[in-house]
Amino acid sequence: MIRKAVEGDLPRIMQVYDAARGFMRSYGNDEQWINGYPQPAMLEKDIIAGGLYVIGDMEGVFFFMAADDPTYRVIDGSWSSERPYGVIHRIAAAPGSHGILDKALGFAFSQIGYIRIDTHRKNIVMDRALTERGFRRCGIITIADGTERVAYDKEAL
Question: What stretches of the chain adopt beta strand conformation (E)?
Answer without folding.
Answer: 2-4, 52-55, 60-65, 76-77, 86-93, 114-119, 136-142, 148-155
